[in-house]
Amino acid sequence: MNLNNLKPAWQQFRLVNSMTAIDTAEILLLIDRAEDASVNKFHQYFINAIVFAVITICCQAG
Which segments in the chain show pLDDT lower than 50? Predict the structure, then answer.
C-alpha cells in the first residue's frame, strides 16, 4: 500500500480539526452583513444605470 495516496486526506483531516468553532450568533451576523452589502450593490448598479441612461440621452448626436 502506498502511503502517499493518503497524504491529501490526512492534510484535509488535520485542517478540518484545527479550525476553531464559530458561534451561531457570529454566523448570523456575517449573513446579515452579506445581505446588507448585496442591497448596497444593487442600489449602486441602479444609480449607475440611471446616470448612464441620462448621459446617453443628453449626448446623442442628432
Answer: none
Indicate the DSSP class of residue 29.
H
CA–CA gap between residue 42 and residue 33 (Å, rounded):
14
Going by the DSSP 8-state scheme, the letter that residue 62 receives in this structure is -
Q: Could you give the CA distance from residue 23 to residue 30 in angstroms, rounded to a whole number?
A: 11
Give me the sign of the Cα torsion angle 37, 43, 46, 51.
Answer: negative
48-59 residue pLDDT tens:
999 999 999 888
Give this prediction's pTM: 0.41
* Distance (Å, whole) CA 49 – CA 34: 23
Q: Which three cell numbers stand for residue 26?
A: 457570529
Grid coordinates given for 33: 452583513
